[in-house]
């Protein structure tokens, strides 16, 4: 019981102060039907640190880690090198074991960090403002759809076929309850996005927003400006979703192309793969929409002595003040992951992020060219950043399993993401980052050629 | 008393002598720190990359043409910047953090170490499931602990935090009502003392929210609640133990009444820490409850997340639980995703998040559970409740405890601002506590008590730590009762004095701008 400081003597003394004869007296309000007389059966008793470590380590060893294999998975979560100082700093107890900064006089560390984070995110996404984080990219995306509904007072959202299918699923779940109508489609294995042929054609006077991913689920990159113009002509909003923020070191940001709300998954910067979470949702928008934003916002102010300081602000949007009229029910967000993002981004800086992006892109170009030489394999993309789609000419999912058996994590098969879309079954999405060596690419190329033969 | 062996004889400083301002603005260990935008620049980077040209231009004519405006710092400067910032934060590691309803308990470092094992930290959510059997087994084991501790039928692991878990539970209720064609039930009953997330969640799901009053003893008014039940009521959201720190004695009877009237019972499990191992909420007839792993199961709050909010369900709501979840099939752990679930899970209300939930929090929570075991978790609840009652009874000669006569409290002690001098309120006590070296308790919540002060010490405080805190709170409360004007300007010793929140909201400055561009 190493986490419990009270001694047996303490407990006796304290019960005496309280005027209780036993601990059971303090649980007197629990009705008999719900009272447990002793520790719950079927669960083990307490264990030493060494024993617990042994148990957990045995479970960890059953997984094939990204660092131990040639690794090419992306589709919303990316393997990047995170400098050691990031993890050191987020483990400082003053950050790790603090709460939401409700008492700003003794939370300036977290608050200043959030102000810096908001500025970094806004600049990266190209928006005027950004909030202090959301749970992740997928929940930020549906929050953005809800925000567009509140701003436009319209309920039809048009989702690009290139939007991550999990993000589409989350939006679909929520739309069942909010009454939003979603127009969705599955992607096709072509070089072109659905902006021209589908999205622009569908925008009408009932449209609250168009949601596009940039780069999209197949890795394709397309200009958002014509789409933004088409949205604005109908007084609809353009929401852009960025699942790989490193890309914005190399390509124009959605905000610069006049997207109204830009959301993203910040996992690539500072956070690590972690089997899907916790991650950090990025959320930026034009300044005029800030009062419809979900989530916490940190703002600059002064203290009673005139010194600059920071506080949580515009909380009249939030649940703890507005209750049922709040813009969102979100309370706890991803503060520590936002710190990891911010530290990593500070280490990178403009020069580092651009260099990182250039290395990612160059590696992806080399890998795409090499893999496209495999007989029967076609590179689907004309454009991409660090992730592209191959048409293998046969079902990709069993190939991925076969390669995994050989210790190669080859990428994400579209059959995994779209099991009911037969037309996508041959698609394999391959991500290449600064952690991917040329030897890794060669290993994959050789193995893939064998597996396809 | 330590003995001065140096021979130096201290002299008392002249009283009232103002310290001279320093050149830097720093005061010894209290260090001012500029923004990264004021000390960094676009050329500096703290990361080394491979040298040499990099080629490639498949960016579809969208190559970035403008600067982003991201400052960089070298590694030493970065470490120093964030270390200096960290020192302006209060934290559990520094002292007792009695923030009621937030369960700020010690965060064991073994949890951190286990979450960082590469087998958990460095696996991708879309790897073939054969390569992540250990990760799926962690989820499965944690799920077993959660359903066993709560006495419920199933658990949805994917919700990202408590409020997200609430949404999960309410959507399951909505799906269950829709399945039986009972779509006229549009009202969710919520006690006045509820967390703000409860009404916000119900409203998001399209329900209208009606308040249920509290009794004079601080519990849900069972008569008022049962009288309101009817064919338009979808269910109730009840926090147990409640936000007044009391066990809802009638919860089983309320559940039975709600079920008899065709509704469902959502239990806000934010305060599960008070009863873990002593009470299984399932025995009280509830249908759904979220569990904040970052409260009861010690995963760190991190300055505002990440949290994790798994939701346990009754048999009645289990078919409607969200996907994905982990299923044991023989010796194999399968990930049942929406896209592949098939008829077996046809009633699921769908997916709530990309991927499978907060794995990093799962490993920490499971580590904590294994450390404490069934016996230790029971002791957790007992010590948390003992500590709170010790504070309640030690201070009820000084502070008004509005429900002190309602019997023992559970994990948190509630006081009001009754009896303070004119013009003094809870905030003055809170800010005075800051000068005493504490994070204040939760202020002005729950709303049913005037000037509420909600004190939750948790089980990880020693008796000595509690005694010192009780002394400090008594001292500050007595100053507030005596009208000590210096409390109105507290804190005096924090990195900042009271901050102008009105200014921040009236002229929001949410991002940094270069001095020439900033609006002042």
From TrEMBL, chain A:
Superkingdom assignment: Bacteria
Reaction(s) this enzyme catalyzes, per UniProt: N(6)-[(R)-lipoyl]-L-lysyl-[glycine-cleavage complex H protein] + glycine + H(+) = N(6)-[(R)-S(8)-aminomethyldihydrolipoyl]-L-lysyl-[glycine-cleavage complex H protein] + CO2
GO molecular function: glycine dehydrogenase (decarboxylating) activity
EC number(s) stated in the UniProt entry for this protein: 1.4.4.2
GO biological process, one term: glycine decarboxylation via glycine cleavage system
Gene3D superfamilies: Aspartate Aminotransferase, domain 1, Type I PLP-dependent aspartate aminotransferase-like (Major domain)
Assigned keywords, A-Z: Oxidoreductase
Coiled coil: none
InterPro entries: GcvPA (IPR023010), GDC-P_N (IPR049315), GDC_P (IPR020581), PyrdxlP-dep_Trfase (IPR015424), PyrdxlP-dep_Trfase_major (IPR015421), PyrdxlP-dep_Trfase_small (IPR015422)
Ranges for domain Glycine cleavage system P-protein N-terminal: 1-445
Top-rank EC class of the record's enzyme: oxidoreductase
Subunit annotation: The glycine cleavage system is composed of four proteins: P, T, L and H. In this organism, the P 'protein' is a heterodimer of two subunits.
Function comment: The glycine cleavage system catalyzes the degradation of glycine. The P protein binds the alpha-amino group of glycine through its pyridoxal phosphate cofactor; CO(2) is released and the remaining methylamine moiety is then transferred to the lipoamide cofactor of the H protein.
Protein family membership: Belongs to the GcvP family. N-terminal subunit subfamily.
NCBIfam families on file: PRK00451.1
PANTHER family: GLYCINE CLEAVAGE SYSTEM P-PROTEIN (PTHR42806), GLYCINE DEHYDROGENASE (DECARBOXYLATING) (PTHR42806:SF1)
Protein's name in the database: Probable glycine dehydrogenase (decarboxylating) subunit 1
Source lineage: Bacteria, Pseudomonadati, Pseudomonadota, Alphaproteobacteria, Sphingomonadales
Gene name as annotated: gcvPA
Automatic annotation (TrEMBL), chain B:
EC number: 1.4.4.2
Catalytic reaction(s) noted: N(6)-[(R)-lipoyl]-L-lysyl-[glycine-cleavage complex H protein] + glycine + H(+) = N(6)-[(R)-S(8)-aminomethyldihydrolipoyl]-L-lysyl-[glycine-cleavage complex H protein] + CO2
Domain Glycine dehydrogenase C-terminal: 382-481
Residues in Aminotransferase class V domain copies: 177-302
UniProt superkingdom: Bacteria
GO biological process: glycine decarboxylation via glycine cleavage system
Claim: Cell membrane is one of the keywords in the record: no
Keywords on record: Oxidoreductase, Pyridoxal phosphate
Entry's Gene Ontology cellular component terms: cytosol; glycine cleavage complex
GO molecular function, one term: glycine binding
NCBIfam families: PRK04366.1
PANTHER family: GLYCINE DEHYDROGENASE (DECARBOXYLATING), MITOCHONDRIAL, GLYCINE DEHYDROGENASE, DECARBOXYLATING
Role according to the record: The glycine cleavage system catalyzes the degradation of glycine. The P protein binds the alpha-amino group of glycine through its pyridoxal phosphate cofactor; CO(2) is released and the remaining methylamine moiety is then transferred to the lipoamide cofactor of the H protein.
The protein's name: glycine dehydrogenase (aminomethyl-transferring)
UniProt organism field: Sphingomonas oligophenolica
Taxonomic lineage of the native organism: Bacteria, Pseudomonadati, Pseudomonadota, Alphaproteobacteria, Sphingomonadales
């Amino acid at each position: 019981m190493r986490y419990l400081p009270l001694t047996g003597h303490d407990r006796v003394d304290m019960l005496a102060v309280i005027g209780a004869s036993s601990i059971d007296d303090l649980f007197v309000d629990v009705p008999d039907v719900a009272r447990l007389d002793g520790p719950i059966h079927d669960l083990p008793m307490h264990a030493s640190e060494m024993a617990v470590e042994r148990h957990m380590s045995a479970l960890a060893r059953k997984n094939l880690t990204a660092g131990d294999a040639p690794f090419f998975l992306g589709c919303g979560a990316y393997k990047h090198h995170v400098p050691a100082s990031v993890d050191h700093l987020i483990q400082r107890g003053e950050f790790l074991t603090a709460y939401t900064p409700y008492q700003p006089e003794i939370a300036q560390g977290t608050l200043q960090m959030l102000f810096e984070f908001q500025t970094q995110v806004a600049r990266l996404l190209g928006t005027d403002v950004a909030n202090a984080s959301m749970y992740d990219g997928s929940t930020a995306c549906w929050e953005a759809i809800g925000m567009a509904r509140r701003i436009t007072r319209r309920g039809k959202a048009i989702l690009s076929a290139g939007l991550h299918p999990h993000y589409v699923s989350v939006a679909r779940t929520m739309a069942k309850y909010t009454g939003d109508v979603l127009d969705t489609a599955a992607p096709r294995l072509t070089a072109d996005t659905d902006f021209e042929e589908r999205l622009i054609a569908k925008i009408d006077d009932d449209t609250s927003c168009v949601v596009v991913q940039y780069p999209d689920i197949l890795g394709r990159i397309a200009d958002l400006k014509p789409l933004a113009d088409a949205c604005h002509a109908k007084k609809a909003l353009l929401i852009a979703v960025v699942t790989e923020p490193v890309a914005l070191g190399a390509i124009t940001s959605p905000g610069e192309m006049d997207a109204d709300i830009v959301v993203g998954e910040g996992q690539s910067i500072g956070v690590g793969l972690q089997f899907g979470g916790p991650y950090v949702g990025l959320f930026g928008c034009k300044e005029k929409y800030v009062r419809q934003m979900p989530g916490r916002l940190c703002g600059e102010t002064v203290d009673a002595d005139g010194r600059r300081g920071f506080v949580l602000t515009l909380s009249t949007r939030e649940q703890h003040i507005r209750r049922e009229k709040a813009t969102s029910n979100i309370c706890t967000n991803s503060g520590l992951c936002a710190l990891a993002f911010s530290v990593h981004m500070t280490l990178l800086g403009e020069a580092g992020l651009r260099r990182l992006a250039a290395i990612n892109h160059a590696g992806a170009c080399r890998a795409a060219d090499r893999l496209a030489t495999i007989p029967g394999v076609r590179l689907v993309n004309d454009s991409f950043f660090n992730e592209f789609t191959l048409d293998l000419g046969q079902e990709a999912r069993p190939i991925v399993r076969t390669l995994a058996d050989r210790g190669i994590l080859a990428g994400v098969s579209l059959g995994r993401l779209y099991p009911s879309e037969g037309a996508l079954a041959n698609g394999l999405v391959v991500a290449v980052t600064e952690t991917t060596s040329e030897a890794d690419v060669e290993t994959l190329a050789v193995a893939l050629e064998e597996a396809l033969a | 008393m330590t003995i001065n062996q140096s021979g130096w004889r201290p002299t008392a400083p002249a009283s009232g002598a103002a310290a001279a301002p320093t050149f830097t603005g720093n005061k010894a260990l209290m260090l001012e720190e500029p923004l990264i935008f004021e000390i960094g620049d676009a050329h500096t980077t703290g990361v080394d990359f491979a040298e040499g040209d990099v080629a490639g231009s498949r960016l579809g004519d969208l190559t970035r043409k403008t600067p982003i405006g991201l400052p960089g710092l070298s590694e030493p400067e970065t470490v120093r910047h964030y270390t200096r910032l960290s020192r302006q934060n209060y934290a559990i590691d520094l002292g007792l953090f009695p923030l009621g309803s937030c369960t700020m308990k010690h965060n064991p470092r073994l949890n951190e170490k286990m979450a960082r094992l590469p087998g958990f930290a460095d696996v991708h959510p879309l790897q073939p499931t054969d390569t992540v059997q250990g990760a799926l087994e962690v989820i499965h084991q944690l799920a077993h602990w959660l359903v066993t501790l709560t006495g419920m039928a199933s658990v949805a692991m994917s919700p990202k935090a408590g409020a997200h878990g609430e949404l999960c539970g309410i959507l399951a209720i909505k799906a269950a009502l829709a399945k039986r064609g009972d779509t006229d039930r549009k009202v969710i009953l919520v006690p006045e003392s509820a967390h703000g997330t409860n009404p916000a969640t119900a409203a998001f799901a399209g329900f209208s929210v009606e308040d249920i009053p509290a009794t004079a003893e601080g519990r849900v008014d069972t008569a008022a609640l049962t009288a309101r039940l009817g064919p338009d009521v979808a269910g109730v959201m009840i926090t147990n133990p409640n936000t007044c720190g009391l066990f809802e004695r009638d919860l089983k009877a309320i559940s039975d009444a709600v079920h008899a009237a065709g509704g469902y019972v959502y239990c806000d499990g934010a305060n599960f820490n008070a009863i873990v191992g002593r009470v299984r909420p399932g025995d009280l007839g509830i249908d759904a409850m979220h569990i904040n792993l970052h409260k009861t199961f010690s995963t760190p709050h991190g300055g505002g997340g990440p949290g994790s909010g798994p939701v346990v369900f009754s048999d009645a709501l289990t078919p409607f639980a969200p996907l994905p979840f982990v299923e044991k099939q023989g010796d194999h752990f399968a990930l049942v995703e929406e896209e592949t679930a098939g008829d077996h899970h046809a009633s699921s209300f769908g997916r709530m998040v990309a991927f499978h939930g907060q794995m990093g929090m799962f490993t920490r929570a499971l580590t904590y559970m294994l450390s404490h075991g069934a016996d230790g978790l029971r002791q957790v609840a007992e010590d948390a409740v003992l500590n709170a009652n010790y504070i309640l009874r030690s201070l009820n000669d000084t502070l008004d405890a509005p429900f002190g006569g309602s019997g023992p409290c559970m994990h948190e002690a509630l006081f009001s601002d009754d009896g303070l001098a004119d013009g003094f309120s809870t905030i003055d006590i809170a800010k005075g506590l800051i000068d005493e070296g504490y994070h204040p308790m939760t202020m002005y919540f729950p709303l049913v008590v005037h000037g509420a002060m909600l004190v939750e010490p948790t089980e990880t405080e020693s008796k000595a730590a509690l005694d010192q805190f009780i002394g400090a709170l008594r001292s500050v409360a007595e100053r507030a009762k005596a009208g000590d004007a210096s409390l109105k300007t507290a804190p005096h010793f924090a990195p900042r004095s009271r901050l102008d929140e009105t200014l921040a909201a009236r002229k929001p400055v949410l991002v940094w701008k270069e001095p020439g561009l900033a609006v002042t």
